[in-house]
Amino acid sequence: MSHLAYAAAAEFDRLLGDPRDTGRLFSHARSLALDEREEFPLEICRELDLLGLPAHYVPVAHGGALRNFGDTLQIVRTIARRDLTVAIAHGKTFLGAASVWVGGDPRQARELGAEVARGTAVSWGLTEREHGSDLLAGDVSAERTAGGYRVSGEKWLINNATRGDLVCVLARTAPEGGSRGFSVLLIDKRRLDPTSFRTLPAARLHGIRGADISGVAFSDAAVDHSALIGAEGDGLEIVLKSLQLTRTLCAGLSLGAADQALDMATAYALARHNHGKPLIELPQSRRLLARSYADLLTAEALTLFASRALHALPGELSITSAVTKYLVPTLVDQALARLSRLVGTRSLLRGDTFEHGRFQKVLRDHRIVGIFDGSSVINLNSLINQFPLIARAHRRGPADEAGLRTASTFTEALPDLDPAALELLPRRSSGLLHAVPAAARELRSLADAGAVPHSLAAHAAEFAEVLEEVTERIGRHKPTPVAAPAHAFKLAEDYARCFAAAAALQLWLRNRSAVDAEATHGLWESGLWLECCLVTLVGRLRPVRTEHLVAEGGRDPEEAVDRLVEPLVAQHTSGQLPSLLPYSRLGTPA
Amino acid sequence: MTTSAPESTAQVVSSEEIRDMLLNLVASYLEQPVTDIRSDVKLLDYGLDSIFALTLCGDVEDEYGIEVKSTLAWDYPTIDAITGFLHEALSERV
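^ Those are the sequences you sent over. The predicted structure of the assembly is below.
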């Protein structure tokens, strides 16, 4: 049984079959064997094509199956839960195609939609050897000719640059460059003169070893004018807007990584005995599991909000996507580090001794998620650049309360994805942060009525205070046009944590009566998961030294978080994955 | 699109006023004396990078109460160019 929000993903999972069954094509055993051989998961990707995954990368408007971005994201999470290499190798096609959904004309979008649905891999050529993420420094050039463009130069460390028949390339169309000096070209390698390009060997990797992270070098490659996406000079704008979609999608990769690691660690803590006791009964093991689960729940709540906000509040996606791409991989990295302390030596074992070596693989594989498609530093820098607009929107007050309600409420119908509504900067405030004081008051009334513990209301009130400080600091921030100062990065991290806490507040308040309390094993009733998210987020925003607090007779604030072990174990033993919403593990009776 | 931006009463704003406002704005971003800023030099050449240039639109909107595209400074890369665009937009409003 799965919650409606995860129904499409669960159906996909079912079609792929139990990954522990070595007879299945997409089994853990095969994934690990491929990784050992650094081999591309070709057959698994073909199976995903046959099962119709590519259609989920194509908006319904262009003939595909993508109606609700959250469905696609949760399917990607399901694949990542089995094998990040596969999710990254296959999901790359969405990244490659996104520029066409954002900037292409209807004919281009429909043609690409048909290609993608047929299983054609699309790659996205942004970075170059010498320039990394500095897109405006790119040297790949497209010179105008009578029939189109002549493309020269090299794109490097590009996912599927070799395997992808289509490559969406950001190229310099004005020699002097600048914000309007670049354009997006969708290049069909099958139609190029074979002597006018060559692919570069795949890099050898620490994680996702089987992935095709390679490059492509063009030398006077002639492409037709119809390859141009949008107008000449629109390249940077199209790419920045596309990144808002792809950065949101990346959260699915991180969640899938956390899902599998927490599931393995929980099984281990239940089965393993130390000093005559199962690990799960030792306070430090419980703390490690509970903190990891709190991080996963925070990441999951933020992702659920962000994927709905992509439809309901598209004009603010420059903020939402940067917060998500920074915070979700960061939280999951943190959880993975904690869980590997719990699992100990086994977290490093290759081979069949422990979970086919999946734990060491997920540790390695996830390292890249916080780096590609805009690293944490890039996303924090993007938030810093938006501080003046954030402050201004905050002063103006909430403008789209209906959009906020839609983004937060699972049962509300979402408007269709509208790439034309994306903005490079937030033009107004959705009121997510404005809504915090009222949410804290709502929790106070619920506590007075006995529906939630007073501790939850107190944590919400404390968060409202912290938020006021953070907003005030953002208002005082003096924008610096060149290189943002190091302290501003801390402020951006704080802002991201506030955003996540505010999203968690809305999600719990707007869905608490609709979510099946029994099926979620106590996570929702009395606001347990929300309290744990608030405790851990506020703990980072306003750190206290627990040992000092306890020595002075106070309570350990993380004790609240330890309560997560109970629902974690209950979910595990009833055949569910650790999650905010019910999701059954395959191969176990529901 | 509606915003709650301060409604400035529609009146003719001269090019000189707009140019002065922008010169002061850019000087304050760069923390340089306004006399060091030239209106015919590309903002990019002053080290105002492409993303930072986007934030200019917020200040322009606050000042004149009109909504402009966030890519204003990309399409009009110098103070003179932005001045020309804004002067026309503000005159049309009157």
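Residues 23 and 180 of chain A are 53 Å apart (CA to CA). Strands of chain A lie at 122-125, 141-144, 148-159, 166-172, 182-188, 197-200, 213-224, 228-229, 273-274, 277-278.

Shout if you want it in another format.
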